[in-house]
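Quick one: co-fold with EPU.
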Amino acid sequence: MDKILIEGGVPLHGTVAVSGAKNAALPVVAAALLAEGDHRIGNVPDLADVRTLSRLLAHMGCRVERGTGDSRDSVEVRVPRDVRPEAPYDLVRTMRASVLVLGPLLARWGRARVSLPGGCAIGARPIDQHLRGLAALGAELRLEHGYVEARVPRGRLSGTTFAFDKETVTGTENVMMAAVLAEGRTVLESCAREPEVSDLAAALVRMGARIEGAGTHRIQVDGVESLRPVAHAVIPDRIEAGTFLVAGALPGNRVTVTGCVPGHLEALLEKLRAVGASVVPVAGGLEVAGGGRPRPVDVKTAPFPGFPTDMQAQMMVLLALADGSSEVTETVFENRYMHVLELRRLGADISVDGRVALVRGVRGLSGAPVMASDLRASAALVLAGLAATGVTEVRRVYHLDRGYERIEQKLAPLGARIRREKA
Ligand code: EPU
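Sure, here it is.
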């Protein structure tokens, strides 16, 4: 198992480019199932999660290939007329987003067998809202032997009005993908408004879907008979961008992040300014500089456009070094504080009571071996290692590789002393 070694306390200066968004690429690749033919999806990061979804599509009978040379950011998917509409446990187990094939499979073939994802390090993460939405469109769903066995008795899904009980990103994506081939109009209420939902809608519209309102709580879909293959480049990764912006905001650092969309990052930028970092738009991106010790600020996660739960762990590293105490409240996932114990090993003073973490700023962190528990927790440990004096060894790097493309190769040119060691 690889580990990442960081010799911290070295100031970071320079420019880093953002890759395509993992959480936008996954639904767009799944959406390819909605049309027979050759799809070309650009700006797809080369990450473990994308490879898992590619394996899943290949298992179903699609051909999935990453381009080479100048096209290495693109993924080509050839979808045959018929597929094996099944997502086995071994693939879903390693990546919950595999459940995104359920909507497209039901929409195009009227049947699907998809393993139920289990819980994960950040919480129980049920998929009841996905299933309720698909049932409202006319699917019959049974849970059997750990699988969702789904079929559409009428053959084709039917448009409906459906309100989510809870804002869910992949739930909104799944039900929207199902609705594009349903008969008639579907109105979805209380939808998630994340930029990744809007990007998926843009890709579906390019395929010939009729969708209005993506990016708001109310999405209207007028079903069409069939779709054409997609040619679409996914949006930049706002969480990867945010992770590098936090790196820039650490004391003594100055980092320019290129290729990001500032409009996707407003809640984070507001907090970075509040801790005293300078945030300046520059050609092609944003420059962030951290001066002295950050000021304490309270942070509460919320669905977009609120402060992203996927940035909570990284922001906590900045607050761990603040000149005072901050309160962090996690409202999206019930158990997303696995990084706290590891940050404490580096000298952070953080206590957790339910959904609230009290972060008492300390003057400095000191390197130590730490263990990654989930994707964003791993990113936080890397940031903490960069700020800490001495050597930090981040173990279980496979979590990091699920969502960050070559993170050590992106940080090293900024001056970071970071390297990967093969086990
Ligand atoms: N929820 C339900 N029932 C459902 C679906 C969700 O109760 O049927 C709950 C969840 O348990 C959670 C809340 O609703 O408490 C929000 O979950 P959501 O469904 O929005 O999360 P997700 O779609 O499973 C996506 C991202 C996550 C990100 C969350 C929140 C993808 C592939 N994943 O997950 O990304 O944290 O939205 O923004 O888009 C990551 O990239 O590290 C990551 C975990």
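If it helps, The chain has a mean pLDDT of 96.
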